[in-house]
């Protein structure tokens, strides 16, 4: 009887493996639609898995807010400092952090595949 339960349990977890993997193509398409051109006045709160940045729009100089609902940008929170500029252009899958003397560029990756 234990073997039957173990077999059923193994089949269940094996069949659910694909359910737990993200749909990378769908996520990439969603991330292509976002845009953020912001200069940080202050760092965002890193208390959630999402980056919710407030600052000034790079082009207009007006106050703005950028939100990453896909958890892509928050991976790079350790690189962010006050005064940095985030550039994520609509239609692209590159997230950039511009510092005074350096530009850090990150491609979108999902399941070990780089999307462009």
TrEMBL record:
PROSITE patterns cross-referenced by the UniProt entry: PROKAR_LIPOPROTEIN (PS51257)
Entry protein name: Lipoprotein
Species in which this protein is naturally found: Flavobacterium psychroterrae
Native organism taxonomy: Bacteria, Pseudomonadati, Bacteroidota, Flavobacteriia, Flavobacteriales
């Amino acid at each position: 009887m234990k073997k039957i339960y173990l077999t059923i349990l193994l089949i269940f977890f094996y069949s659910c493996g694909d359910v737990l993997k993200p749909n990378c193509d769908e996520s990439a398409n969603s991330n292509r639609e976002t845009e953020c051109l912001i200069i940080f006045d202050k760092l965002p709160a890193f208390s959630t898995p999402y980056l919710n940045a407030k600052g000034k729009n790079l082009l207009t100089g007006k106050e703005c807010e950028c939100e990453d609902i896909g958890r892509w940008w928050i991976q790079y929170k350790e690189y962010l400092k006050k005064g940095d500029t985030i550039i994520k252009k609509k239609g692209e899958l590159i997230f950039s952090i511009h510092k005074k003397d350096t530009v850090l560029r990150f491609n979108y990756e999902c399941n070990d595949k780089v999307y462009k």
